[in-house]
Design brief:
mainly beta; 1 helix
């Protein structure tokens, strides 16, 4: 049985390496996911820090630059939760959501620790896509969601901080991977 699993893994790995599609991911069941274009997306947030210019605003989460960032408002201390809401302008059957922390030479040890993802077709009624833990890392972190239904809106809500007693959060980028 181990040999069969190894052979399946090795053949999948060779297939992925031979596949000349940098924008697709191949899963065990040989389905693929494509990076969804953020070109027409819009985004709002529960708060943001305009004082961080040129960073701080929620649009930095969808600008394809992980070195820019959104930050909650510094001038008003608001405890968790904090949220961002993305309008993807069309329904997407999501396979995973990629979240990148605000970049720092040493990964930021503050910000959110636990968050939830929700999807909506109308921007009003939301369906839970899961609750997740966020690691202290500069790397893109992928969080699987069900692709059974398409959603136009994606909401990320930061539920609790990495460090108790902190009230602010920030992120570098949000990406969506959808059904091909």
């Amino acid at each position: 049985m181990k040999k069969i699993k190894y052979l399946l893994f090795a053949s999948t790995l060779m297939f992925v390496m031979a596949c000349d599609k940098a924008d697709s991911v191949i899963f065990k069941d040989e389905s693929t996911a494509l990076t969804v274009s953020k070109k027409d997306w819009t985004i709002t947030a529960s708060s943001f820090s305009a004082d961080e210019a040129p960073n701080g605003t929620p649009d930095k989460l969808i600008d394809n630059d992980s070195k820019t960032y959104w930050h909650t408002d510094y001038s008003v201390v608001t405890p968790y939760p904090h949220w961002v809401l993305i309008d993807m302008k069309k329904e997407v059957k999501m396979i995973s959501v990629g979240v990148t922390n605000r970049y720092a030479a040493t990964p930021n040890a503050v910000g959110m620790k636990k968050f939830k993802l929700e999807g909506s077709t109308d921007g009003t009624t939301f369906t839970s896509l899961g609750e997740f833990n966020f690691a202290i890392s500069n790397d893109l972190q992928n969080f699987p969601v069900s692709s059974a239904k398409g959603y136009r809106y994606l909401k990320l809500t930061a539920l609790e901080p990495q460090r108790a007693g902190t009230n602010h959060t920030f992120l570098g980028e949000i990406d969506v991977f959808g059904v091909k």
